[in-house]
Design a protein that fits this description.
4-stranded antiparallel beta sheet; about 45% strand; mainly beta; about 170 residues
């Protein structure tokens, strides 16, 4: 079995233990078994072309569709959990009391939403930062300013980063 795609693939695919996820110019996100190539679930149809790679977390895939919105999709079933019209990029997921997704929006603000429902919990401006690391797995946010300042933002309960934490692992 195979599933025909009806558009070009211009963004990076994502392959992991969940499957192979392919964003397409035909406004669809395809999901394939990484060994058999069979469709995992019917392609998710968006309202704009997919020109950014999918961000795949433990439970949710996040996909931005150009001139449309950010989609949150159940990784196992392909069912849409929620959408955010102003959402652009997931920059972190923190699982403490629930699971909270940190989304950068079109205005450059950071929105904290519940991973499963999409309900907004809070928001804050992120003025002064120009580059963000796309991140749908680590419980931290990484950003850099135009002047070269790099920050790691983590929950207060995680404690401060130490020099030892930043060293590469020993072989």
């Amino acid at each position: 079995d195979s599933q025909a795609m009806h558009g070009a693939v211009l963004a990076d695919m994502h392959v992991d233990e969940h499957g192979c996820f392919v964003p397409c110019e035909d406004n669809r996100l395809y999901a394939f078994d990484r060994t058999s190539g069979k469709a995992l679930w019917p392609a998710l149809v968006c309202q704009g072309p997919l020109r950014q790679p999918p961000q795949v977390g433990e439970n949710t895939i996040f996909q931005y569709a150009l001139r449309d919105r950010l989609y949150a999709i159940d990784v196992a079933t392909g069912v849409q959990r929620w959408t955010m019209p102003a959402g652009r990029l997931v920059v972190g997921i923190v699982r403490d009391e629930g699971s909270h997704v940190y989304v950068l929006d079109a205005a450059g603000d950071l929105r904290v939403v519940d991973e499963l429902s999409g309900q907004e919990i809070s928001s804050a401006p992120m003025a002064g930062y120009a580059v963000y690391l796309p991140n749908a797995t680590a419980p931290a946010l990484y950003a850099a300013s135009p002047t070269g300042k790099v920050v790691c933002i983590r929950p207060l309960a995680a404690g401060s980063l130490t020099t030892e934490m930043l060293r590469p692992p020993r072989p």
